[in-house]
Amino acid sequence: MRKLIEGIIEFRRHVYPAYRATFARLAGTQDPDCLFVGCSDSRVVPNLFASTDPGDLFVVRNLGNLVPPFGHERGPGSSPSVGAALEFALHALDVADVVVCGHSNCGAMRGLLSGDLPRGAESLSAWLQHGRPALERLARLPDGGDGIALDASLPEHDRLSQLNVLEQVRHVASYPFVAERVAAGALRLHGWWFDIGTAEVWAFEPDFGRFVRMDEAEAARLKARMGDAGPEPVPEGPADRA
Length: 242
Ligand SMILES: [Zn+2]
What we know:
Blueprint: H1 2-26, E1 34-39, H2 46-49, E2 57-62, H3 81-92, E3 97-103, H4 107-114, H5 122-128, H6 132-140, H7 156-173, H8 176-183, E4 188-195, E5 200-205, E6 210-213, H9 216-225
Parallel strand pairs: 1-2, 1-3, 3-4
Antiparallel strand pairs: 4-5, 5-6
Helix pairs in contact: 6-7
Bound molecules: zinc ion.
Zinc ion binds next to α4.
């Protein structure tokens, strides 16, 4: 906490002057083009690894980067928080992209996998149910017929974390207003995964059925899909981790 307090003083003195114009411009409005759903984990800091500025990302962070599917976000014991953020991001901010980003060594995924949760953590247990479909898919791999190739050298909880990203993207798509926009070409959904040890972002490539490192080639591929003119994407080499 001391670091937090001293950081505010540091920001006021030394950082804010460089951002003065940015914050003045943002004071009355925001216009982010992306909703980012990430884990609450202290090591996952999208503004740092994606070099984003204030105003760039509309962010939801929760334990396990989970998105209750449509219909499960209402009623007793439910959590409408992520659904509300989706509605706001699309209806009020008109974002064009939604990213669900998981990460390595995720405590939520470890808990989901082992079932070993702190005693009396009923909210935690109820919340993690939204990750259960990924656990079921993990049990079906590699012959689950999903066409998904995961890196077998990853620990089981990391493979679960990657499957969970795909599952939560599916949950995002379960909201009718999301599905409508995707079908109309007005919204793109992305599944990303942050490897803490290397600080590398991996993006799920639907064309390859696997996560690929977000290097210049993958960035070009993504931008080409968005309609940005640029050099032809270079296919990933066999040395790439799935
Ligand atoms: Zn996590």
